[in-house]
Amino acid sequence: MSLELRQQLKLSQQLIMTPQLQLAIRLLQLSRLELLETIHQELQENPALEESQDASPSDSHEEEAPVPAESPEILSGEAPDPKTMDDTDWGSLINEYSSSGRVTSESEKKDGPNYEAFISGKESLQEHLLWQLRMAFPDEETQQIAALIIGNLNADGYLDVSIDELMGQSGSSYEKVTDTLYLLQTFDPIGVCSRNLKECLMIQARNLNLENTPVIHIIRDHLPHLERKNYKAVSTALKIPIRDVIAAVDIIRGLDPRPGRLFNSESPQYITPDIYVYKVDDDFVIVLNDDGMPKLRVNSFYKDAIHRKKEMSEQTRDYVQEKMKSATWLIRSIHQRQKTIYRVMESILRYQREFFEKGISHLKPMVLRDIAEDIGMHESTISRVTTNKYAHTPQGIFELKFFFNSSINRTSGDAIASASVINQIKQVIASEDPRKPYSDKQLSDIMKVKNIDVARRTVAKYREMLKILPSSRRREYVCPDTEDAEFDNQNRQSE
C-alpha cells in the first residue's frame, strides 16, 4: 500500500456570517430603545463615528426680539433707543406682562437657592415605615426587630418570613417579636406587615371600627365562600339576611388587599411607536419615526487622516481604517433596518387594509409566510422585524406581531382572525347581564350564531387570555325581597 499526496479542486457553496451580516441581523431585532442605547454606546466607543449637527437654514439667521405692546416708546410714538433695547431683557418683560403674580428677576434667581436641589425621589415603603418607627421612639431591641421586619416586606407590604425566623435572626423572645410586629401593623398604610390576606383585611376592618359585625365574621371564617360568591352559605352560617351579607361584601371590596403598592417605585414604561400610519383622504401614508434618532456620519477628520498615509504609522492607519469600517457598517445597517421595517409595514397595510379602515373586527388571518413571499424575504427576517416593533395606526397602537393571527373557521364563508374572535368575545361579555353572565358554552353558541365556529374549550382559552373570570365568579348577586321574607319565616319557625 503506497501513500501519495494529491491536489483536488472542489467547488461548493456555504453561508458565512460576515461581521456586516451579523451586525445587520442584530440591529434588525432590536427595539427602538435598545437601538438608541446601541447607537449611544457606539458613539462613545468609536471615534470615527459622530452625530451630525447640521443646522437648518432657518437656524442660520437671528430672529428679532418681540416688543411688548405696553412699551412706553410705542405708546408715545417715539422711536426706542437702540442701546436701551440691547440692554433690556425682553424675555423677563414678556413673562412679567403675561403672568398674574410677581416675577423673580435674574439677580434674585442667582442669589436665591436652587429649589431643584430640594426635589427628592419617590419615598419607598421601607423609608415610610422607618420614619414612623422613629416617631414612636422605640427602645434599641424593638428598633432592631422592626428594621428586620421592614427589610423582609415584599412589594405588596406583606411579611415574607415567619415569626420563628425573625426570632432566630434577632435573638429576641416570641413576645418581643410579636409585640413589635403588632406595633408596625398600626402604621400607615393600614394593613402593612400582614402575614396573609386574611390578617390584612382584618386589620383594615378593625381600623374602621367594624368589630363584632358581619364584615369581621366573613373575613375570619368565610373567605372561601366569598371567593365563590356563595352568599347563601354565608347567610345560613351567620344567620343573617342575604341583604346584610351583600352589604358586608361591598365594604370588604373597598379594602385594599395590597397596601404596599402605593409606594411602588416602578415607573410606567410608555410605548414609542417605530412607525406611524396616517389616513390622508382615501389613502394611507406610512411615516418612520425618526424623532430622537441620532443622524450618524463618519468623522471627516479621520477621512482626511487616511489620505495622509505618511503622517501616521501603519498600526495607527489600521486602527483608523477598522473604526471607519465599523462606523460605515453601522450606518448602513441602520438604514437597511429602517428600509426593511417600512417594506414590512407596507405589505401589512396591503393585506390588512380593512382593519385600518374599519377596526379589529375586520382583521384577516395572516402568517409570516404571506409577508415574506410578498416582499421577497425569509420568514425569520420578518419575525425579527415584527418583534418589539410598534405601529401607531388610526385604530390605536399595536405591535407588528398583532397583525399575524391564526384562522378560525366560519360556519359559512371565509375564515376569520383569532384576534377578531377574541375581541368579539370580549364585547359579548361586556354587554351581558351581570346577574346572569354567560357560560363558556353559551358564549360558544353565541359565536356560532355570529357565523363563527369556535369550541367551548377555545372560548375558555380566549377568556383566560383576556383575564376574565368564569361565569360563576362574574355573577353579581342581587337579593330579591322574597329571600328576605323567606329568611324571616325561617327565624319565626326556629323561635
Quick synopsis:
This protein is α+β, with helices and mostly antiparallel strands. Among the domains are: 125-263, RNA polymerase sigma-54 factor, core-binding domain (Arc Repressor Mutant, subunit A, Orthogonal Bundle), CATH 1.10.10; 275-405, no CATH class; 408-474, Homeodomain-like (Arc Repressor Mutant, subunit A), CATH 1.10.10.
Q: Which properties best describe this structure?
A:
four-stranded mixed sheet; two-stranded antiparallel sheet; 495 residues; alpha+beta; Arc Repressor Mutant, subunit A
Outline the secondary-structure elements.
Blueprint: H1 19-28, H2 32-45, E1 49-51, H3 72-76, H4 82-87, H5 90-98, H6 106-111, H7 125-135, H8 140-151, H9 163-170, H10 174-184, H11 197-207, H12 214-221, H13 223-227, H14 231-238, H15 242-253, E2 275-280, E3 283-288, E4 296-298, H16 300-307, H17 314-351, H18 353-358, H19 368-375, H20 379-386, E5 390-393, E6 396-399, E7 407-408, E8 416-417, H21 418-430, H22 440-449, H23 456-465, H24 471-474, H25 481-494
Parallel strand pairs: 2-5
Antiparallel strand pairs: 1-4, 2-3, 5-6, 7-8
Description of the molecule:
By secondary structure, the protein is α+β, with helices and mostly antiparallel strands. Among the domains are: 125-263, Arc Repressor Mutant, subunit A; 275-405, no CATH class; 408-474, Homeodomain-like (Arc Repressor Mutant, subunit A). It has helices spanning 19-28, 32-45, 72-76, 82-87, 90-98, 106-111, 125-135, 140-151, 163-170, 174-184, 197-207, 214-221, 223-227, 231-238, 242-253, 300-307, 314-351, 353-358, 368-375, 379-386, 418-430, 440-449, 456-465, 471-474, 481-494; strands spanning 49-51, 275-280, 283-288, 296-298, 390-393, 396-399, 407-408, 416-417. The strands form 3 sheets. It has a 4-stranded mixed β-sheet, covered by helices on one side. A two-stranded antiparallel ribbon has the order 1-4. A hairpin with a 2-residue loop joins strand 5 (390-393) and strand 6. The longest helix has 38 residues, at 314-351. The protein is extended and about 95 Å long.
